[in-house]
Amino acid sequence: MENMDLPVLENKTDYTPRQIVERLDQYIIGQREAKRAVSIALRNRFRRLKLPEEIREEVAPKNILMIGPTGSGKTEIARRLAKLCNAPFLKVEATKYTEVGYVGRDVESMVRDLMMVGYKDVKAEMEESLRGKSVSIVEEKLLDLLLPGSGEKKNKMNLEGQNEADSENSEKAENSADIPSVIYLGASSDGENAGSKADFDAKAEDAATNSTREKFRKMLREGKLEDREVEVSVQNAQHGPSMEIIAGGSFDDLQSTMQNIAGILSGGGRRKKRLVSIKEARKILTESTLDSMVDYDKVSEIAKNRVENSGIIFIDEIDKIAVHGESHGQDVSREGVQRDILPIVEGSNVNTKFGVINTTHILFIAAGAFSVASPSDLIPELQGRFPLRVELESLHKEDFKRILTEPKNSLIMQYSALLETEGVKLNITEDAIDRMSFIAEDVNSKAENIGARRLHTIMEKVLNDICFDADEHSGENFTVDAAYVNDKLKDIIQDQDLSRYIL
Q1: Contacts of 365 (CB under 8 A, 6+ apart)
Q2: Which one, of 106, 61, 105, 123, lies nearest residue 308 by Cα?
Q3: CA atoms within 13 A on the CB side of 277
Q4: How many CA atoms are closer than 13 Å to the CA of 175, on its beta-carbon side?
Q5: Model-level pTM?
Q6: What pLDDT, in 10s, does the model give residues 53-77?
Q7: What is the DSSP letter of 148?
Q8: Rounded CA gap, 400 and 455, in Å?
């Protein structure tokens, strides 16, 4: 197997902060300050890797606290940032965790989950790098399925030819090397057989088998056998690191381990026969072949290195565990969660089934609306672990217009593509976009401010009838203008009390 370097950040994050912001602009509208903060944080991680080792360990990431209403782009910024740098990324909800001693998930499980994400990513990358080498192996296995026994005969023939070449003199080896040239001569003049009939028949059969195998190989490569059915043996065993009941020291790991043991006891490791087409068999054999080629110890090593140096954990809804005023009742547990999160963010060692993970250089991005509580309601120690604070702005009409049209994954592009599958051409006019943007801003200001998510609701209401009847209007064009938008939303616009429930 090729020696695979540890791909931490190289070749993926050699972007300047300005370039990072430009790439984030392709998907996220506005929020310039937040983009600048995360771009600098990402660039500093790249700079850290170029430092001498003794200095590198002293440079810790500057964790970020994002403050802003829901739907303003907090989660999307973190997710796009992780995808941009090919870093292991995990989004967690702070409200899912409870302090030690309470029923629920312990905070260390976020690190174990991040390691699992990194492990799967590295495994997929390694399999992709080995896919080219697996093609010839899979082809031989498919030929073995199409011509049972031909593979063994071919190997036996090659082995016998090699042994014969080693034991006989060069002249005899040359005469016996080319199987098709073998001619049965019967008895010679001196009474000795030039070759036995049995040997001749065996070699002739091997030559015919070899010729047939090559014909099938050609047909296989030309795609002429894709629909032919073959019987494939499938094993239900899951490969990966060995199970350790005490590895993570948590109920989550214990539960996962017990499920794996139950699967093995119920016959999960046995092989079973499946009758599938060559096309499906190729996928099954490719997966099993790649699975056998992957070095799982190497995968764990690369994943561990990548998680520790480039991992990103996004802790959402952190304002929900903030304690406003004196601690009492449920607030006591919330403050306990903060205290448990503190050492993880500060830097500590967490046991996982892949090994011990040090969280010192993992980047933590926390986010919350802080509509009820404020950042100062978090315990001081935790506040100090998020030195960079970025306030995201509420979205307005012009922002909504840009969100509908500019991003690569804009809502208008998505709906247009969906309807084109039914043969319907959707045309949304400029005044319709302007009207929907105004309604989104108006409803957000008078009801709950849910940011850009309001556009999802409005677009769905406006295009409801078109999407429902699209299959009956194949080949037609639909134009959505401001008048059409007003007609579909007239009842909601007139009754503001109703809009707070519907939109």
Answers
A1: 38, 63, 64, 65, 66, 78, 312, 313, 314, 315
A2: 61
A3: 8
A4: 9
A5: 0.70
A6: 888 888 888 898 999 888 788 888 8
A7: T
A8: 8
